[in-house]
């Protein structure tokens, strides 16, 4: 099963990389706002059942993939 | 309009961060394969028309957001 995990900074956390990208885009005359940059982790998981897979991937996020103090994660199966 | 750009390394490009994450997950007894890590850039674009927006975001990717030599990008409107 293919799994996609999107990890992004919580809304209240400052995103300097996003701000720098926004400034760069605006300097190229692109009219963008609220640029936020996150990680996307894609992998194969040896599970047939979606509920089981979601439980396991949640564990992965909580234990390793996301820093839950400052990041939120979204699991896409 | 909210725009999501997913940027990932081309398949033939080695992904050391993905490999390190895979090893870490396996050491925690998670059975995962082919871990690949990419970027997800989210922003607001002042466009009503989807075709226009897609054309502009493609230009952003080609000019700044993606290194098209080693990265592929996907635009989600």
TrEMBL record, chains A, B:
Keywords: ATP-binding, Cytoplasm, Ligase, Nucleotide-binding, Purine biosynthesis. Pathway: Purine metabolism; IMP biosynthesis via de novo pathway; 5-amino-1-(5-phospho-D-ribosyl)imidazole from N(2)-formyl-N(1)-(5-phospho-D-ribosyl)glycinamide: step 1/2. Pfam families: PurS. GO terms for molecular function: ATP binding; phosphoribosylformylglycinamidine synthase activity. It is found in: Cytoplasm. One of its GO terms (cellular component) is cytoplasm. GO terms for biological process: 'de novo' IMP biosynthetic process. The keyword Glycosyltransferase does not apply. Its main location: cytoplasm. It catalyses: N(2)-formyl-N(1)-(5-phospho-beta-D-ribosyl)glycinamide + L-glutamine + ATP + H2O = 2-formamido-N(1)-(5-O-phospho-beta-D-ribosyl)acetamidine + L-glutamate + ADP + phosphate + H(+). Gene3D superfamilies: Phosphoribosylformylglycinamidine synthase subunit PurS (3.30.1280.10). Its EC number is 6.3.5.3. HAMAP family: PurS. Belongs to the PurS family. Part of the FGAM synthase complex composed of 1 PurL, 1 PurQ and 2 PurS subunits. Part of the phosphoribosylformylglycinamidine synthase complex involved in the purines biosynthetic pathway. Catalyzes the ATP-dependent conversion of formylglycinamide ribonucleotide (FGAR) and glutamine to yield formylglycinamidine ribonucleotide (FGAM) and glutamate. The FGAM synthase complex is composed of three subunits. PurQ produces an ammonia molecule by converting glutamine to glutamate. PurL transfers the ammonia molecule to FGAR to form FGAM in an ATP-dependent manner. This is Phosphoribosylformylglycinamidine synthase subunit PurS. It comes from Campylobacter ureolyticus ACS-301-V-Sch3b.
């Amino acid at each position: 099963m293919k799994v996609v995990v999107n990890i992004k900074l919580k809304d209240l956390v400052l995103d300097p990389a996003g701000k720098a990208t926004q400034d760069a885009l605006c300097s190229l005359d692109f009219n963008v706002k609220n640029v936020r940059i996150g990680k996307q982790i894609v992998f194969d998981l040896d599970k047939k059942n979606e509920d089981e897979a979601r439980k396991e991937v949640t564990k992965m996020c909580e234990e390793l993939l996301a820093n839950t103090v400052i990041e939120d994660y979204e699991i896409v199966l």
